[in-house]
Amino acid sequence: MTTIAVLGSGRVGGGLAAALTRAGHQVTVADRTPGAAADAARAAQVVINATPGAGSLERLGALREELAGKILVDVSNATEDGPDGLPAGLLHPGSSLAELLQLALPATRVVKTLNTMLYTVMTAPTALAQPPTAFLSGQDVEAKRTVRALLEDLGWPRDWVTDLGGIETARATEAAVLFVPHVIRSSGFAPFAVSIAR
Q1: Residue 70 lies in domain
Q2: Dihedral Cα 105, 106, 107, 109, nearest 10 deg
Q3: CATH number for the domain harbouring residue 79
Q4: Are 161 and 193 in contact (CB under 8 A)?
Q5: What is the mean pLDDT of residues 21-41?
Q6: In whole angstroms, what is the distance from residue 90 CA to residue 136 CA?
Q7: What is the CA radius of gyration of the chain?
Q8: I need a labelling partner for 31 at 20 to 30 A (CA). Which of 14, 48, 102, 131 fits?
Q9: pLDDT tens profile 151-177
Q10: Does residue 192 lie within any of the structural domains?
């Protein structure tokens, strides 16, 4: 059992929290009350960033002390939204939210994952017609091993998870969010994910 704090109580955070609780982990969801995120992060072994990516850097940077020594699982995408509310561009072109979080939180082990799919696929990967791929990006091998085990608890078969390497590889997966508005306009708001066919 892992003690997990989920920052963000929307569809992404709520879904991950419910699924990880069902898998037997001790999960706390931090709401927006003052101090809730700090208290939750302080008590957890693993912290999941499911906050809106545009404000994640500032929000998590304020928790530097509480996040020291923790694994931070970043599932957010930092985007500029268009008039329809869908992603229209990257907030950090030439870098990534995950890289900037790792720079801001040097004592924290940041792992990027689950950001290349509609939120429903995060906890139900086998519901798609073809196997999706979950990517891992991060500097710390042990942290990625822990996150891979959590992905298995969420229903991800081991061979559907691809370790891309260091945190800089998150630039590629974060850029994949630019597919989202076009896929939704083309096919409607239905579950989908990026998949590597072999």
Answers
A1: 3-187
A2: 80
A3: 3.40.50.720
A4: no
A5: 93
A6: 20
A7: 16
A8: 102
A9: 999 999 999 999 999 999 999 999 999
A10: no
